[in-house]
Amino acid sequence: MIRTELKRGTAALAILSVLEQGPLHGYEIGRRIEERTNGALRYTLAALYPLLYRMEHHGWLKAEWETGENGKRRRCYRLTAKGKKMLAPMRAEWADLFRALRQVAKVTHA
Amino acid sequence: MRDWRSYVRERLAEAGEGGGMDEGVVRGLAEHLEDLYTGLRASGMTQQEALRRTPSHVGNWLELQQGITAARQEGAMNERVAKFWIPSLVTLVAAWGVLTILICAGVQPWMTHPAEPRGLIMYVPWLVVLPPVGAAGAYLVRRANASGWRVYAAGAFPAVATALLFVLILPWALVVDRHVAPDFQLLGFATGIVSWVLLPGVALVIGAALEGLRGSHQKERLPRV
After folding, report:
1. Contact B139/B88 with Cβ under 8 angstroms?
2. In this complex, do B71 and A47 lie within 8 Å of one another by their Cβ atoms?
3. What is the C-alpha separation between B198 and B180, in angstroms, rounded?
4. Which residue among B29, B35, B74 places its CB closest to the CB of A49?
5. Beta strand B121-122 with A61-67: parallel, antiparallel or unpaired?
6. In angstroms, rounded to a whole number, what is the distance separating the alpha carbons of residues B16 and A53?
7. Measured between alpha carbons, how far is B92 from B25 in angstroms, rounded to an integer?
8. Are B218 and B161 in contact, with CB atoms under 8 Å apart?
9. Nearest 5°: phi and psi at B157?
10. How far apart are CA B14 and CA B54, in angstroms?
């Protein structure tokens, strides 16, 4: 079980990574992250939505209302070119962090 | 089934001491909860259990309400800076910078009444440079995906800033500086406004308007997707 404080910092990278595959609406973003991490990363709406709005304002995401096949209107988030550019340095930063943790705290992969 | 939109609206209002949240935000959150509920029901959960479990995915309503409000305010502030303040400051620095260079280079102004304080003063080369400066400000506004009044306000910002100086500093100078008051003439003040605010303002607005026109022509030429 990963504590909320630890998870919070991971959310931006997790969101950008699932959106790299294509546009998704809010619920689907949360579900994909949970599915890909086997439930280890599960964000509440209180953690997810403020970050989505912040990322949108930074120009990393673009949100648009779209009508789905069932006629339902949904706010769909897609990665922008600026957001794509953010992914590589963010991944490198996390890789550095894991490397450092491995050295100092003997953290290993499960 | 529960009306999730009303539910979200009520909970956000409770959390934010009655503060209203944008309807688009409410709709987005309500859809998320509805999807969660549908997912739980599809997994075999009873209606009652699904209704009980769905809101637990929200976490803290106050945190959600404050988080979204802060993110949107931050966004609005960033937007104002990018769409108005940066272009405005660029035009201001460019306009006053060019004037300073001209004065330092010894360029003499054209004056209608050289010996009197009531005459019009015109730095003609400066007035010629101002339309491109206004156009540059307007271009920066358009590049930040803004339009309308911002194009003209940012383009004409140096004139607005000068007008503010006239309005704020001159009355103060009249009170504080005794040397100003005896020579002061209302006509001189009026010609000062014309020389330093109106004429430069018109030149800047012409540039901004031409850039605005160029932008709208470009938009028309773009194929509709």
Report:
1. no
2. no
3. 23
4. B29
5. unpaired
6. 18
7. 37
8. no
9. -55, -40
10. 18
Exposed / middle / buried, residue A96 (Cβ in 10 Å: 0-12, 13-18, 19+): exposed
CA distance A22 to B114: 69
pLDDT of residue B183: 58
Question: How far apart are alpha carbons A11 and A52 in whole angstroms?
Answer: 10
Question: What mean pLDDT value characterizes chain A?
Answer: 89
Chain A residues within 8 Å of chain B (Cβ atoms): 25-28, 30-31, 44-47, 49-51, 53-54, 56-58, 65, 72-75
What angle is formed at CA A1 by the lines to CA A33 and CA B30, rounded to 5 degrees? 45
Residue A25 and residue B67: Cβ atoms within 8 Å?
Answer: no
- Domains with residue ranges and CATH for chain A: 4-105 (1.10.10.10)
Tokens of B23: 């309807």
- Contact at 8 Å (CB) between B12 and B34? no
Q: What is the ipTM score, two decimals?
A: 0.85
CA distances A110 to A94, A107, B136, Å, are: 17, 9, 57
For A44, the closest of B25, B59, B70 (CB atoms) is B59
pTM of the model as a whole: 0.64
Residue B13: what residue type?
A
Average pLDDT, chain B: 85
Name residue B79's amino acid.
Answer: E
Cβ-based contacts of A15 with chain B (< 8 Å): none
- Give the span between the Cα atoms of B147 and B159, in whole angstroms: 20
**Which of A32-41, A101-110, B200-209 has the lowest average pLDDT?**
A101-110
CA–CA dist B58, B54 (Å, integer)? 8
Range from A7-21, A93-107, B110-124, B189-203 carrying the lowest mean pLDDT: B110-124
Write out pLDDT tens, residues A6-57. 777 889 999 999 999 999 999 999 999 999 999 889 899 999 999 999 999 8
